[in-house]
Amino acid sequence: PVVKAIRKYTKLPFDVHLMITDPDKYIDDFVNAGADIITVHAEACVHLNRTIQNIKDKGIKAGVVLNPATSLSVLDWVLNDIDMVLIMSVNPGFGGQKYIERCTSKIAALKEKIDSLNLKTDIEVDGGITADNIGKVVKAGANVIVAGSAIFKHKDLGEAMRLLREGARS
Q1: What is residue 78's predicted lDDT score, i.e. its pLDDT?
Q2: Number of other residues whose CB lies within 10 A of the CB of residue 94
Q3: Which CATH superfamily is domain 89-170 in?
Q4: pLDDT confidence of residue 121
Q5: Which backbone phi and psi does 62 adopt, to 5 degrees?
Q6: How remote is the C-alpha of 113 from its chain's centroid?
Q7: Coil, strand or helix at 122
């Protein structure tokens, strides 16, 4: 209901992260609500390749989410078929957690793998992103950033965005 309710107010792309079991049951609902890209957790899919094809067959982009402890090898059979990889840099469940430092090398390894295959796959990072660590995340290869707590827990949203942009450039 939320995606559908706000879809009419913007043309910005809606990136829907399905942090649920059996995401295949809900793909049609989110596509019909106006999602532009749907990302699913590798562990939540019985057949990851089938889920990705289901999303792509609906005419939208597909992505795979990797939890901090999930190996990049999960992507071996699907990397050529997806538009984005979302690396969780905290354990999923709640906001405000501290960035897991080991994820930086995981981002860099993924970027190297994508480049070696001449792919244009986006690398999104979600979890514990702050103005102080966004620079190393971007340098490692991320080009899509989720920084919920850094923005929404700041007293001034504009200042929070400025600090993140500045940090990303450093």
Answers
A1: 98
A2: 8
A3: Aldolase class I (3.20.20.70)
A4: 99
A5: -125, 145
A6: 17
A7: strand
C-alpha–C-alpha distance, residues 111 and 28, integer Å: 30
Structure token digits, residue 132 = 């102080």
Token reading at 35: 């999602």
Residue 85 tokens, joined = 């990889």
Contact status, residue 135 vs residue 169, Cβ threshold 8 Å? yes
Ramachandran assignment for 34, one of left (phi > 0), alpha (psi -120 to 50 degrees), beta (any other): left
For each successive 10 residues of the chain (170 residues), what is the average pLDDT? 92 95 96 97 95 98 97 97 98 85 98 98 96 97 93 91 93
Q: How far apart are CA 97 and CA 92, in angstroms?
A: 9
- Specify the pTM: 0.94
Locate 8 and state its tokens.
């009419």
**How is the chain split into domains, by residue range?**
1-64, 89-170
- Model pLDDT, residue 1: 74
